[in-house]
Amino acid sequence: MASKVIKTETTMVEAIKASLDFASRGGDGTVEPVAVLWTDADGQWRPALPALQAEIPHLYVLGPYRPYDRTGPVVWLKCVIERVLPDCAPADGVVPVLYLPNVSRQELRAGGECRREYQPLIELQYRGVVWHQRNGRDWTVDAFVKSEDGIGLDVAEDAHAREALHRSLPVLVVEPLAHLRGHGRLNADHFDGLSVSDPVRGVLAWMDKPEHFQKAADSTRWAAFRSVCAGKYGFDPATDNPSIAASGILNGDAAFEDVWKRFSDAPRSYPGLHAVMGQAQARDLLARQERNPTVNDREEALLRERLAAAAGKPHHEACAAITELEQHHGVRRSWVWSAAGRAPLAGSLRYLAELAKQAAKPIASPTIGEMVQIYASDGWKADRAALEALLQVRTPSDFELVGKVVKALYATWLDETARNFQKLVSANPDDFRALAKAVDGERDACVLFADGLRFDVGGMLQERLEGRNVKVRVSHRIAPLPTVTATGKPLASPAHDMFEGPSSTEDFSPVLASTKQPVTADRLRQAMASQGVEVIEGGQIRMASNVAKGGWAEIGEIDSLGHKLDARLVDQIDREIEAIADRVMELLNAGWVRVHIVTDHGWLLMPGRLPKVELPPYLVARKGHRAAAVKGQSAVTLPTYPWHWNPQVVVVSPPGIGVFYADIEYAHGGVTLQECVVPDLVVELGHRAHDVAIAEVKWQKMRCRISIKTEAAGLAVDLRLKRNDPNSSIVAEPRPVPKSGDVTLLVEDDGHEGAAALVVVLDAAGKVMKSESTTVGGAQ
After folding, report:
1. Distance from C-alpha of 767 to C-alpha of 308, rounded to nearest angstrom
2. How many CA atoms lie within 13 A of 622 on its CB side?
3. Disulfide check for 444: which of 385, 462, 593, 595 has CB 3.0–4.6 Å away?
4. Strand 551-555 relative to strand 445-450: parallel, antiparallel, unpaired?
């Protein structure tokens, strides 16, 4: 599958990952591919595999059986795809990438002429997708480097440049692209200079893979590297072990501080340093513990034991235990080993501690409206903390452990809050029904329906959209009862006044008032079209046509994925948010003035299953996870509520967070704040990035002079190491942009000299509107 144009990634590794992710999405109306095949007839990409596998955890390699390196023969790759190897399988919903060195796409397409040992891969062309150029050819190193669909570098066309490009590949893939652009045509000297002229990177690459580093260097470059190491660092890479350099780093020797700093900036690029640093000899057992991976590994193992113990405690004791663990282990998130992915439990602990704080006391209030307001203001933070805690871990064992802790902290709060809310709704059913407002269409606005967009996930979507320089207004709606798509979606459509509730129902679907036919997806669209709504099907991009009731489009699979994946839905949340954000931008760029994002219901998610509640089947016409239609005049002992579309129809729903079926982790249909309080987002184009221009960036030593061209007011300028991270600022504070547009920023710490940084322009709310790469202390 051809890849999209890559423009925003900061390194070649990130660009490759983005291109592979794009290929894995398939097309609208197609089944998700089982794998992305990366064919490489000449094995050109092999030298980049360490950096690629560090960045892409679902990248698997055809080769000798080494499962811990995610490498194996054809039969092993097939097992990975079928997910029959739990220790090696990618997360649910993640499409694996299969790198096939010395196998071309043409060979796989040749069928019977394909080598016999690779013939089991042939069928994957049809169940999966092949990563290739627009012209159908394999992505070679040269093609990806030069193509605008790759990283688009201007490279000399001679043989020397090509050879140097391939020699430098292990370094090139992690080199900031900002360092490679703007220097005219890149020749052999540029690529060779990546290693030879940078002894710091050379030391790191040698420590990471010493034998590979020496083999990749020609005799001249190797001799030069040895000379630099002897003169600057006091060791000989030809005779000394990398642990010599590691000991210098561990003990804070001045000569090695720049090596440690460079490693800290990109630890995933040098995965071998974890083992090497573990062999280092410390002169002082208490010094530089944060640099010692064995200390981190030991503490992570201890945290694992303590988390397991906390998961077995009663709610309040579990909350106290997690708070105490955060005080001890939280500091490890600032260690380089956390950035290297070696402290996932410490990463999860941050959100577990937030969950313990938010879930200490259930939400309670005397009125429905007040309780809804408390949840919409702050109560949702417990739900998000639970999701974020699960998102930090990837292995099945870690996910299971964190899931148990989440349940210990979350279940009691969730259930007690639910019962408080249910008591109010039972006592005031008419008040609740009145709060469930319909959605009206309006001219120049497109309603975008996203099934199962829970309130906290709506907040994540807001953050993602604001990062794209648009205005987002967030409020909340109340989903009608029961909280299922059949009931909620018609009320969220601009044609809601065309429907009514029949006197009986099994699936809680209203009917068309004119024909008494149940509302299906097709009839809903037809009803909207008859009312003058512009219905935009699938992935269509249709210009706003100034119709009276605006447009209607649909996006997202959160709810269907939840029912399929249960708690592993969390692995797909980011991808779904990105898809919704992409769709919003498409609609705005097509001319819609506003995009109004609505949904039908939220949901409950509890790792380790929600509690089962018994409901005899003879009492109900049909049973969902958390809602059932009472049959006739049957008397039930569980809580009941009136159906939104016809209050004479009785809905039965389990108390608290119970479900009617066993072994359920994801469910909706009932009466909880998480199911009933849903986000309502209105998105408009604000100050676009092109309304602000960074006209000039000049350095005088550590003083940066910046010229901004804009008519917008209330802007500020910052210097950061990471675009969207205010904590990565390297100046005292952002400076406001005066009418002249000229701003001067001082970098006080000269340790940043030579570092890659970003000039960022911020709007009045602190959101990034524009950014441009620069080198601290040097010319742009």
Report:
1. 40
2. 8
3. 593
4. parallel
Amino acid (one-letter) located at 759: V
**CA 512 to chain CA mean position, Å:** 40
Closest C-alpha to 139, from 152, 154, 149: 149
Kindly write down the DSSP assignment for every residue of 125-164, as one continuous string: HHHSEE-B-TTS-B--HHHHHHSTTTT---B--SHHHHHH
Region at 132 (left for phi over 0; alpha for psi -120 to 50; beta for the rest): beta
Q: What pTM, to 2 d.p., does this model score?
A: 0.71
Tokens, residue 383: 């739900």
Q: How many CB atoms lie within 10 A of CB 198?
A: 16
> Cα-flanking dihedrals φ and ψ of residue 344, to 5°?
-65, -35
CA pair distance 234, 251, nearest whole angstrom: 15
Task: Note whether 24 and 63 are within 8 A (CB).
Answer: no
Residue carrying structure tokens 């663990």: 325
Q: What backbone phi and psi angles, to 5 degrees, belong to 157?
A: -95, 15
Distances (CA, A) of 606 to 187, 289, 460, 546: 56, 37, 19, 44
Amino acid in the structure at residue 9: E
List the one residue out of 569, 539, 544, 571 whose CA is nearest residue 555.
Answer: 539
pLDDT at 5 over 60: no
As given in the structure block, the two tokens for residue 38 are 């990366």
Question: What is the pLDDT confidence band of residue 39, given thresholds at 50, 70 and 90?
Answer: very high
Q: pLDDT tens digits for 477-488?
A: 999 999 999 999
Residues 660-689: pLDDT tens digits? Answer: 999 999 999 999 999 999 999 999 987 554
Alpha carbon distances (Å) from 367 to 81, 372, 516, 657: 52, 9, 36, 20
Angstrom distance (rounded) from CA 346 to CA 337: 10
- Confirm if 704 and 742 have CB atoms less than 8 A apart: no
Nearest 5°: the CA angle 343, 349, 354 is: 150
The Cα–Cα gap between 457 and 391 comes to: 13
